[in-house]
Amino acid sequence: MFTDRLGNLLYISPLHPVNRHDGPLFEPALRNMMAGLEERGIRVRAGTPINLDAGFDSKANRKACQDCQLQPNIKCNPRNSGQRAAAPNEAIYVQRYVNERAFAWEDTYRRLVIRYEVYARNHLAFTYMAASLTLLRLVT
Question: How far, in Å, are 59, 67, 89, 95, 122 from residue 131 at the CA level?
Fold first, then answer.
């Protein structure tokens, strides 16, 4: 899911089974997101920071961000580097709360917390419905 500073939903990435770790899925999802945004006429400025938690701390993910001209703002995973777990720019990293809040809103819909749907298109339809209901609740 990709949101702007105000929390407006701009893009939802394709869904994957829950038994796969997000780390290896990040690079193809990032490239897919950038292409999807460009198709919609949304241009992401070079050097735009992208916030990721410590689970995405890898050289491959940092390189993928830089290849897309994004500045990775990834919390260091102490198991990878032995460094203190801190994001390069804490002021920007704090803005991750907007995305985490959006995921928490999605988790209020029990049907989406555990994926009951066999077909990805059905699950995506319920995800869109949940996003629509959440936005409707916010504006009323």
Answer: 33, 30, 30, 20, 14
Q: Which pLDDT tens digit goes with each residue over 92-126?
A: 877 777 778 877 888 888 878 777 778 888 888 88
Instruction: Please give the Cα distance from 68 to 46 (Å, whole number).
Output: 8
Q: What is the pTM of this model?
A: 0.61
Region of 91 (left: φ > 0; alpha: ψ -120 to 50; beta: rest) is alpha
Q: Cα(106)–Cα(134) distance, rounded to whole angstroms? A: 8
Return d(Cα 140, Cα 135) in angstroms, integer.
Answer: 9
